[in-house]
Design brief:
Blueprint: E1 2-9, H1 18-35, E2 39-47, E3 50-57, H2 60-70, E4 76-79
Helix pairs in contact: 1-2
Length: 99
């Protein structure tokens, strides 16, 4: 599966309370259960009026199906082509791409 970053425009996303976050996660999990094993949710980051979600999926169509089922808007879907972290400074060559 490929890794994707999904950008969602959600007013007040960064100020949502525990109950709102729990409900959104519940809807997402219910949709994921219907679509498994073609898509997996890793985690999300909430800021101001946006949420950035990290998903594994066979292709973007599974992310779109998930969005339709759980009612989460999609502003953009971008495939992650490389992950860079502090250990990148130690590598002599780029890691091999999976798939």
């Amino acid at each position: 599966m490929k890794r994707y970053i999904i950008e969602r425009d959600i007013p007040g996303a960064g100020e949502r309370g525990v109950a709102q976050i729990r409900e959104a996660a519940r809807r997402s999990n219910a949709a994921l259960a219907q679509l498994a094993p073609k898509i997996q949710w890793e985690h999300s980051y909430s800021t101001g009026n946006k949420v950035f979600c990290i998903y594994l999926a066979e292709d973007p169509s599974w992310i779109e199906k998930h969005s339709e089922l759980c009612g989460a808007p999609i502003t953009s879907i971008r495939e992650v082509t490389r992950v860079t972290d502090p250990t990148s400074a130690l590598r002599r060559t780029a890691p091999k791409k999976k798939g």
